[in-house]
Every structure is written in C-alpha cells, then in structure tokens.
Automatic annotation (TrEMBL):
Residues 1-25 form the signal peptide. InterPro entries: LprI-like_N (IPR009739). Keywords: Signal. This is Lysozyme inhibitor LprI-like N-terminal domain-containing protein. Pfam families: LprI. Residues 53-141 form the Lysozyme inhibitor LprI-like N-terminal domain.
Length: 150
C-alpha cells in the first residue's frame, strides 16, 4: 500500500537537494572566493595532523593549533558577514549565531560525556578534538558560503 509519506518523502528530499544546489550556484562572481581560501588554509592544518605528525602527542598538538585557527576564522567570518548585512539582518544573524553557539556548547558536552577514556580508551582525547574541529569547520564553511553571495 502506498502511503502519503512514501510519496512525499522523496519529493521533499529532492526539493531540499535542488534548492541547496541552486542556492550555492547563485554567488557574486566578482567577490573573492572566501570558501576556497579558507579550505586551502585549513588543509595545511589537516595535513599536519594526519600526515606530518609522528606521534599521538604531535597529532593532538596539531589539532589544538587547527582548532585555534578555526576559532580565529570563525570570528573573522562572522565579523565580515555581519558587515555586509543591514541592521535588521544583522540582528537576525546575531540571534542565529547565538543559537549556533548554544548548539556548539551542547555538542561539546555530548562529545565530552560519551568519548571518555572508559568508553574509547586512549583515543578519546583525539576523538574529542576531531569532533570539535568538525563543528567549527562546518560553521566557518557555512559563513563563507553566505559571504559568497555578497
């Protein structure tokens, strides 16, 4: 039996996918490609973590440097985007950023409570750093995608 949800679900997925692709395609061709520049710089940190580090301690230190870079880039991208927005848009963006910061904090709590030495052994600190970096990187990339529109 075909249910309404079985019919609607694929169309909803397709709609979201096409909208996402279309939104990414509409950018300002005269604007610098902030996203590519960020990804290029981030890849150097990732290479240090995964290819250049000789020990776990080296990898963890490289992750800490990467996270410091990501936190700095988050501040820069947020500030740069805010400068492009009108007063009312900036107000909405600040609310969005506050909500994201609450999400970020909730993710930190979740990861720190689950990826413990008891659950994951000696790799738990490394995993926590990796997850935290993923959360930061995804936000910076999204903000850079927003900036491409201006």
């Amino acid at each position: 039996m075909i249910t309404l949800s079985r019919v609607i679900r694929p169309f909803a997925f397709l709609s979201i996918t096409l909208t996402s692709v279309a939104c990414q395609a509409i950018d300002n061709p005269d604007a610098p490609n902030y996203l590519d520049a960020f990804q290029s710089e981030a890849s150097a940190y990732e290479q240090a973590i995964f290819e250049e580090s000789q020990t776990t301690s080296d990898s963890m230190e490289a992750y800490r440097e990467y996270i410091a870079f990501l936190e700095d880039e988050l501040v820069k991208a947020s500030s740069a985007l805010a400068e492009e927005l009108s007063a009312s848009e900036k107000d909405v963006f600040e609310k969005s950023q506050s909500a994201w910061e609450a999400y970020q904090e909730a993710e930190k709590v979740f990861v720190s409570r689950v990826w413990t030495p008891q659950n994951f052994g000696s790799s738990s600190p490394f995993s926590r750093l990796a997850f935290y970096a993923d959360v930061l990187r995804s936000r910076v990339e999204l903000l850079q995608k927003y900036r491409l529109q201006f």
